[in-house]
Amino acid sequence: MRKHSVAKSKVTVLDALFPAVRQHILGTILAEPARWWYLSELAHHLGTTPSSLQRELPLLVNAGILEERRDGTRTYFRAQQASPTYRNLRGIFAKTQEDRKKSQSPVPKRLSPLPLVSRELISRYNREELYKEVWSQPIQRLAAAYGLSDVGLGKVCRKLWIPLLGRGHWTKKKAGKPVGTCPPLPFIEVESSMETRPLRKSTHTDVERQAVAHPREPGAARG
Hints:
Strand content: 5-15%
Number of strands: 5
Order of helices and strands: HHEHHEEHEHHHHHEH
Radius of gyration: 23 Å
Distance between the termini: 82 Å
Strand order of the largest sheet: 1-3-2
Largest sheet: 3 strands, antiparallel
Structural class: mainly alpha
């Protein structure tokens, strides 16, 4: 009788239970169960877009695996530690990730690292909202709302890697001339710890001090 050898596919418990996107979401959130994740922050951490997570996150909330919290226009997510499945799920993910580390070779470093942005600056400004505002009104008017000069706000945007409008954008638009389209907001890398860049005690940020100390700036930020 001929013996047939069947190749065993390397399928983990997680592969059998969850789609890849859901695995990545749970693996990240369960690793730090007390941390609240903002949608865009979580998407960036996973190397994907927020829209790719918008279907999965409500499902996990409705299942009682995650909990959500709203703060103004933002929605945050974290592990629902009161869930009866919490300990088991976290154990499965921890064991699977441990096995994967043992069996897989080290992940190569990124060839093109993402731009690094200060965590302190991210905590002061809502990057997504500021990006929308910059492209919806003249920067001089917007800067006044933030208590900065247009030059100062331009510096903030550049430090946050927020694309700025070209010179004369609003004048051309008012005259019916063609203007550039709004480019997508690029992904960034947020400093992993506040300790990497010690903060000086002051009532102003470095960005605001620079805006006062150097009032002149190329006109790329002017509307």
